Amino acid sequence: MQLIGYLHDTIYSMYDKMNSVVNYTSSLTSEPFLYEETKIVAELRLQGYSDKEIRKKVVEDNIWGYKSIKQAKRLIPVVFRRMIFLDDNLTNILINGNEMDSKMVALYLVMKNNRLFSEFIQEVYITKASSNDGIITKTDIRIFFDKKRQQSKVVAGWKPYIFRKLVQVYINILFKSGLTCNTREKKGMVVKVNKEMSKYIIM
Question: Which of 77, 145, 184, 198 is the most buried (most CB within 10 A)?
Fold first, then answer.
């Protein structure tokens, strides 16, 4: 319980620093976690490459190893946009930290860029991490979206397929960031809490 409490307080601290994310957007329907891609770009920036040079390496040299160059072209602005919130300390954790800490920086960048996902982490993930069952289901995510539809005219105006896609994306990000495991569990995703996670990003 002490670890869960620490995790709860730390993510709340992260969330308090995200007031710059003011608008709801459904952009995550086409924006995956992009952990490896973000790490590669951060390393190149640290080596002194300009964004123009990095874009050339991604598109022409295919350093991300994508089968579709069109996809690489579409996603590199997403990575650049997320990295606006990186400082020297976070860059060092992203590149040189252990896997969990490094992924937490990447998760933080997603949260900084998406108010709805930030609120999902704070309102759903934190609650589940503090509960006895520790399971997040698709129904939990849908209930969260239903609540946001009631609170926001913007969210209320989205088509049903957007919410279906966001459910899939949220599940994928939770799993790839290490926040959950057993994504094929019939009951839902098991919230993953361990000592590494207790070291969440300190701003």
Answer: 145
pLDDT of residue 185: 53
Of 18, 194, 33, nearest to 115 (Cα)?
A: 18
pLDDT of residue 182: 64
Residue 28 vs residues 61, 98, 132, 186: alpha-carbon distances, Å: 26, 26, 30, 25
Res 131: pLDDT = 77
φ, ψ (nearest 5 deg) of residue 42: -60, -40
Query: What count of other Cβ atoms lies within 10 Å of the Cβ of residue 12?
Result: 11
**Nearest-angstrom CA–CA distance, 117 and 138:** 15
Q: Which residues pair with 191 in a beta bridge?
A: 180
CA 104 from centroid of its chain's CA atoms: 8
SS3 144: helix
Are the C-beta atoms of residues 103 and 35 closer than 8 Å to each other?
A: yes
pTM score? 0.82
Query: Running along the chain, 203 residues long, what does each successive block of 10 average in pLDDT?
Result: 46 47 86 96 96 95 93 95 91 91 91 92 85 85 97 96 96 90 64 55 35
Closest C-alpha to 36, from 91, 101, 103? 103
Residue 100 is inside which H or E element, if any? helix 99-113
Per-residue pLDDT at 18: 45
Residue 173 CA to residue 31 CA, distance in Å, equals: 10
Q: Would you list the DSSP string of 40-52?
A: HHHHHHHTT--HH
